[in-house]
């Protein structure tokens, strides 16, 4: 069986790659052998991150992209394919938290901002990534959701709604594209486990790794904490034969 963590000769695209889980995942892709396009609306930071990877001997480019802007997303995917020739793996990770307010006090602008980045942004990224992957007849997409995709949370309705939406979008994409050689997965459980020490807040049944993480790696992954866990799980999910939503 192919090693799901070997990305030699593959091309990966990561959004929200200037910091946090996105940066950790881009670094993990590079270390696993992939050529990586790092995208973020913080252009200077993401270009600096890509330059650091390139200075360490990896293939990496930084792209300024706001995922809530359709034309910037199209350009981001086109630039990745123009630079590296193909697109094998996409981690749609860029996301924002909502300003805390009960639903009746929330503003339309804040709703549109959060949904525009967290949900419509993922849809737009998938749309353009899938077009390239379809032409290749292969590819894998992981959308970063949240434990908030599995449960409610008072005060952040737009965030919770956006992440529930990401799960529905991912499930639909998985069904639409599986026969075309493309898999779509999402990471709600892993995102929760790897986030800033919140794992104790997660109900026990949700503190499990998806099937995509090989059994012999689960124990060591559980021992570590932080974004590196998420990154390895994402690569594993992307590279394995399993679809996890
Ligand atoms: N950290 C957590 O506790 C946690 C838990 C569950 C899910 N998540 C999800 O994981 C993802 C990453 O979270 P993180 O903690 O690494 O966040 P982070 O804030 O550290 O990083 C997010 C990155 O996304 C970028 N970004 C924001 N809006 C963007 C846009 N419109 N276009 C392009 N880039 C944009 C930011 O500049 C930043 O670099 C998010 O989708 C988040 O909802 C995080």
Structure description:
The structure is a single chain. The chain is an alpha/beta fold and 245 residues long. It has a single domain, classed as Rossmann fold. It is 48% helix and 12% strand. The protein has 9 helices and 6 strands. It has a 6-stranded parallel β-sheet, sandwiched between helices. The two termini are 22 Å apart. Nicotinamide-adenine-dinucleotide is lined by residues 15-16, 18-22, 40-42, 65-68, 93-96, 117, 121, 144, 146, 191-192, 195-196, 198. The site of nicotinamide-adenine-dinucleotide (NAD) has 27 residues, from α1 and α7.
CATH class: Alpha Beta
Q: Helices and strands: which structural class?
A: alpha/beta
CATH fold naming: Rossmann fold
Mean pLDDT: 86
Q: What gyration radius follows from the Cα positions, in whole Å?
A: 17 Å
Approximate helicity band: 40-55%
Number of strands: 6
> Treating each run of at least 4 consecutive H or I residues as one helix, how many helices?
9
Into how many domains do the coordinates divide?
1
End-to-end CA span: 22 Å
Question: Main beta sheet: strand number and arrangement?
Answer: 6 strands, parallel
Residue windows where pLDDT falls under 50 for at least 5 positions: 191-212, 219-225
Instruction: State the shape.
Output: globular
Query: What ligand species are in this complex?
Result: nicotinamide-adenine-dinucleotide
CATH architecture: 3-Layer(aba) Sandwich
Q: Which superfamily, in CATH terms, is the homologous superfamily?
A: NAD(P)-binding Rossmann-like Domain
Classify the beta-strand content into a percent band: 5-15%
H/E element order: EHEHEHEHHEHEHHH
Strand order of the largest sheet: 3-2-1-4-5-6
């Amino acid at each position: 069986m192919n090693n799901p963590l070997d990305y030699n000769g593959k091309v990966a695209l990561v959004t929200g790659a200037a910091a946090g889980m996105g940066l950790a995942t881009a670094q993990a892709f590079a270390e696993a052998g992939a050529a990586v396009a790092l995208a973020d609306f913080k252009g200077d930071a993401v270009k600096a991150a890509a330059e650091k990877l390139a200075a360490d001997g990896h293939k990496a480019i930084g792209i300024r992209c706001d995922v809530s802007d359709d034309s910037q997303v199209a350009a981001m995917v086109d630039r990745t394919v123009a630079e590296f020739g193909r697109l094998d793996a996409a981690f749609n990770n860029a996301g924002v938290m909502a300003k805390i307010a009960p639903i009746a006090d929330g503003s339309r602008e804040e709703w549109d901002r959060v949904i525009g980045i967290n949900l419509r942004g993922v849809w737009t990224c998938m749309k353009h990534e899938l077009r390239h992957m379809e032409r290749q007849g292969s590819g894998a997409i992981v959308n970063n959701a949240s434990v908030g995709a599995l449960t409610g949370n008072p005060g952040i309705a737009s965030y919770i709604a956006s992440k529930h939406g990401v799960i529905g979008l991912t499930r639909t994409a998985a069904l639409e594209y599986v026969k075309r050689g493309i898999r779509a997965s999402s990471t709600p459980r892993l995102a929760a486990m790897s986030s800033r020490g919140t794992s104790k807040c997660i109900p026990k049944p949700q503190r499990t790794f998806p099937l995509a993480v090989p059994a012999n790696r689960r124990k060591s992954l559980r021992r570590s904490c932080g974004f590196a866990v998420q990154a390895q799980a994402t690569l594993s999910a992307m590279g394995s034969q399993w679809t996890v939503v």
